[in-house]
C-alpha cells in the first residue's frame, strides 16, 4: 500500500489550503476562529501532520470562502497518475 501522507498530492493539498487561506486574508488564528477550533489544528493540517477527509475539505473550503473544487484541482494536477492506494 502506498502512503498518501507526504505524497506530492498531499503536499499540494496543504499548499493549496495555505494559499487559499492567505488569499482570503486569513491568518491561522482567524481560520481557527471561523472553524471554532484551536489554531494548532489549522497548523497541523497545513503542515501535513494531520490528514483530512473529503467532508473536512468541504468545511475548510467554506471557512476560507472558496469552493472545494478550486483546492481539489491543484491536488489532482499534482497527484501522480500511477499513484496507488
TrEMBL record:
InterPro entries: Cro/C1-type_HTH (IPR001387), Lambda_DNA-bd_dom_sf (IPR010982). It comes from the Bacteria. Residues 17-72 form the HTH cro/C1-type domain. Gene3D superfamilies: lambda repressor-like DNA-binding domains. GO terms for molecular function: DNA binding. This is Helix-turn-helix.
